[in-house]
Design goal:
- The structure is a single chain.
- About 45% of the residues lie in helices and about 15% in strands.
- By secondary structure, the chain is α+β, with helices and mostly antiparallel strands.
- It folds into 3 domains: about 100 residues, Orthogonal Bundle (Butyryl-Coa Dehydrogenase, subunit A, domain 1), CATH 1.10.540.10; about 120 residues, Butyryl-CoA Dehydrogenase, subunit A, domain 2 (Beta Barrel), CATH 2.40.110; about 140 residues, Butyryl-CoA Dehydrogenase, subunit A, domain 3 (Up-down Bundle), CATH 1.20.140.
- The strands form 3 sheets. The protein has a 4-stranded mixed β-sheet with strand order 1-4-5-8, with helices on one face. Strands 2-3-7-6 form a 4-stranded antiparallel β-sheet, with no helix packed on it. It has a two-stranded antiparallel ribbon with strand order 9-10.
- α7 runs antiparallel to α8.
- The longest helix is centred in the C-terminal third of the chain and has 30 residues.
């Protein structure tokens, strides 16, 4: 008679639980396991693309409009629900959990363009890509060199960008560029944001892209981009909250907005990390009950049981922190001792580091089988490794947290 084991997917804790959240979680879980996971198992080993029909169904379910206000045909939900759905999707395929963030880029558009594109984004019919990093500017945003020169009727972009995922299939590329010459005394000055509208499957005039050869994060392509006299009309310059009548100056605000906009993406990355780790745990719990050595299931051996227990404990501790940080982001629950930037960096760091450890341990539990593409463990492992790099490396997250707790001494 098979033994009964606890489901390694605990329910939402009572402090955060509502009937609506439970229903959202169950709906996302069913979709992930029945639609996304089979697609991932088939397509990821051969580096196939996320199917259009899968994206269409995600749009119909509202996954692209989770945090989009209802007036723009979104669900009008919070960061908590965003993280909840992201975890479920990442448990199946991190790339699918990642693509839902491409609609959120429309929230940065100025009101006139937001009115045109935001409702489409909520349905997954307008998705953006983000070009900020450069060959010599990764975590150090202030060192970007891509230039935007003012001309009649718009701007001309020249420079190179790296790590722009979905650049080919997106409806618009957000580009962070410098509108004033690089000044080593004020490196933040003149950094602004632009939107290049385009057709999916094409690059705009003056922009070319080369797909980067990656070891994971399949389902879509990541590009380095070259801009050579690429024209952006005047309305492609993104202002700051101009629906309140304000505009960015040409000072440091563009840099500040680009840096401050990273908190929710880091919560999103924490959710992706947790989903990957949970997938590895669930698969391991099933595997150790089936795999026998020395006449017994390997789940009977203490070394295996303790591995499983540690994996579960690490996942749950990061999930609890994520729920807290997401709730604070929704409620604005911060005082002088904490900040959204610090908490976002904390949860991103903890979850990403945990995810690599847990998925690596799961691969070890699976032995040689885990090192094949016949099992999804290696996919979780490869993708978990990336979570320590994108949206700010683990080292940068520690820098952000330490700077909040112990402000650095000014250079002398």
């Amino acid at each position: 008679m098979p033994r009964q084991m606890l489901d390694p997917r605990p329910p939402i804790p009572a402090a955060y639980r509502t009937d609506e959240r439970m229903a959202i979680q169950e709906m996302a879980r069913d979709f992930a396991m029945n639609k996304v996971l089979p697609a991932a198992n088939e397509l990821d080993p051969e580096h196939g693309m996320i199917p259009d029909e899968l994206r269409k169904e995600m749009g119909e379910l509202g996954f692209f409009g989770i945090t989009v206000p209802e007036k723009y045909d979104g669900l009008g939900l919070g960061v908590f629900e965003y993280a909840l759905i992201t975890e479920e999707l990442a448990r199946a395929w991190m790339s699918v959990a990642s693509i839902i963030a491409r609609s959120a880029l429309a929230s940065a558009l100025d009101p006139s363009q937001k009115a045109k594109y935001y409702a489409l984004a909520a349905k997954g019919e307008w998705l953006g890509s983000f070009a900020m990093s450069e060959p010599d500017a990764g975590s150090d945003i202030a060192s970007i060199r891509t230039r935007a020169e003012k001309v009649d009727g718009g701007w001309v972009l020249n420079g190179q960008k790296m790590w722009c995922t979905f650049a080919d299939q997106s409806n618009g590329i957000f580009v962070v560029a410098r509108t004033t010459p690089y000044d080593p005394e004020n490196r933040h000055k003149g950094i602004r944001r632009f939107i290049l509208h385009k057709e999916p499957g094409e690059f705009p005039d003056g922009c070319t892209g080369n797909a980067i050869r990656k070891i994971g994060y399949f389902g879509w392509n990541t590009f380095d981009l070259s801009f050579n006299d690429c024209f952006v009309p005047d309305d492609g310059l993104i202002g700051y909250e101009s629906d309140r009548g304000e505009q960015e100056s040409d000072g440091n605000e563009g840099f500040i907005r680009a840096a401050k906009s990273m908190t929710i993406p880091r919560i999103h990355t924490a959710a992706r990390s947790i989903g990957l780790a949970r997938g590895a745990l669930e698969d391991s719990v099933a595997y150790v009950q089936e795999r026998e050595q020395f006449g017994r299931p390997i789940g009977d051996f203490q070394v295996t049981r303790f591995k499983i227990a540690k994996m579960a404990a690490e996942i749950e501790s990061c999930r609890a922190l994520m729920y807290q940080v997401a709730t604070n982001a929704d409620l604005g629950g911060y005082d002088n001792s904490t900040s959204p930037d610090m908490e976002g960096a904390m949860v991103k760091y903890m979850a990403a580091e945990m995810s690599e450890r847990v998925t690596s341990e799961a691969l070890q539990i699976h032995g040689g089988a885990g090192y094949t593409t016949d099992f999804p463990i290696e996919r979780y492992w490869r993708d978990a490794r990336l979570t320590k790099i994108f949206e700010g490396t683990s080292e940068i997250m520690l820098r952000l947290v330490s700077d909040c707790l112990l402000p650095p001494t000014p250079h002398r």
